[in-house]
Design goal:
Layout (H helix, E strand, L loop, with lengths): L7 H4 L12 H12 L6 E5 L6 H13 L16 E5 L6 H11 L9 E6 L6 H12 L5 E7 L7 H4 L3 E4 L5 H15 L2 E2 L1 H11 L3 H15 L2 E2 L1 H8 L4 H12 L3 H13 L4 H20 L10 H10 L5 H17 L6 H14 L3 H41 L5 H6 L1 H42 L37 H18 L2 H8 L2 E6 L2 E6 L2 H9 L1 H12 L4 E6 L12 H11 L1 H10 L6
Parallel strand pairs: 1-4, 1-5, 2-3, 3-4, 6-7, 9-10
Antiparallel strand pairs: 8-9
Length: about 600
Amino acid sequence: MAENYRALTRKYRPQSFEDVVSQEHVSSTLKNAIRQNRLSHAYMFCGPRGVGKTTMARVLARSINQIGENVDGEALSQTLNVVEIDAASNNKVEDVHHLREIVRVPPQSGNYKIFIIDEVHMLSKAAFNALLKTLEEPPPHAIFIFATTEPHKVLPTILSRVQRFDFKRISVDEIVSRLKEICEKEGIKIDDESLHTIAKKADGALRDALGLMDQAIAFCGVEIAYDQLVQALNVVGNDQLFEFTQAISGRDSHAGLLLIDRLMKEGVDIQEFLVSMTTHLRNLYVAKQGGRMHLVEATEDTKQRYLDAAKSFSEEDLMRMLHLVSEAQIKIRDVQQPRVHFEIMMLKLIHMSRAKELSELLNGLNQLKKNANNSVNSLKESESVENEQTEQATSSEPADTEKSLVSKSDTDTNLQSSQSSEARELSALTEKNVLATDADEEDIDTLLTGKPSLGFAKSNRPPNGAVNKKKSQKNEVPEPVVKLNGIEDIEACWDQFLNHLKKNSSKTLFHQVEAVRLKNLKGTELFVSVNNMFAANLLEEHRVFLSTLLKETVGIHIRLKCVVEREKKTSAESLNPYDRFRELQKKDAHLKTIVELFGAELEY
């Protein structure tokens, strides 16, 4: 290396307003002020690091005093008319007092004496106050130029006495364009992918980009390849990010674990990888929308890779993945085993249910609910027709007593035959509804848990859905009529009924029936109280089945009538939404099963 070698950041520091990159709003204003002779006595340049604040101050000082380009920008402070002060090391009141003494001395040559104070926010409060009067009423030959990255730390009294200019971050494309010019002058061969990697790593700071270019040249020489650059700068390459998302789309946990192991051996920082992964998923989301690829800062080849990779995901899946990666990026900072949590995050992304699968599951549940409602409606229609026929048979009375007495035996025989036929039809309808309800409930349980349910009263039915029927005998002895005196008789048999229900029904139905409160008994109608519409609908759908079990326990058919009575608000409702959701999971078995299936992405 030659002894007079200078870093690229110093060698290619701008000497004029035209050389400053991406700050046209500042340079054009200052050029107009110089041309119109409307220069302010104090300026403040604010913005992030490496965007040209100090450089713009030197260019302004050179232009005001008409200093030639033969004088280097770093040597301006050696002239008598330009004084450059570092406020980080000269932040005391004594330093400001010395500055006030220098301000009084007029320029030796030129029209103005310019004071450039870098990192002005480092001045103490006392130093700011000491500078305040001089800044408000300076001599006509003095111009102050302040530069700072943290303008919020400067006293408002100082900000009110200066013209403020905010510098913006330099875009990736502008940094790439500037790096190409410098590489051509230096004779460096480098591909576009490497230039974009350096520009994105610089995070909007051209000075940082030139420093990274110096490092890459020192490692790779005059010919810089992308693979060597990634190794030299220890950055996360696009190939690793696309390989990660490919393992997610293919649900290949083995490939994902191997990739993480390779990243750890190469010394990649997990936090840096997650930051890059967040940007990568954001670019995939933009590519999924299509037509907005100008929002992706990458080469044309990389943009095409984003368009191809985005086809494997939906917008909903990408949003959930962004949520999980962002959440892991925050949590991994404080955990004891970051690699394990990194692998857990990757496995969540691989095994999480896709939006298409969730949509199919919800459609299946809605179809099952629709089928169950249709079967209940058909049963109601059959019962209404049966009740009308019964009313017509009981309302017809014989006009003639003698004729009634003569035909009494025939009428009894016909009535008994009619009742027997109706009983058989009702039994068939009841059994059909029970089978349909069981089938629907079994499908729901299978979809939610992957295991078939126990079904409703399966132990009392023969296989293949056959129904046990006793052949009616002509001389059949009628069953004794059971009479109930009141709700007390039901309460006495209720525990036995619940035990019978627990053995022959699903857990959901049992828990809902167990929670009801017995209200009143009117004839063969048992009024019960529930506290939510879900329980009322569930009992209504299975009322025929429950009536059958009650007959086996009590001895007669009893029809359940549900009344919804809301409980008074308790302190549980004052909990936050997350705790209330957990309470709902404890009460509803199906909801708890859904949460266990969908996992962490349900929180999103």
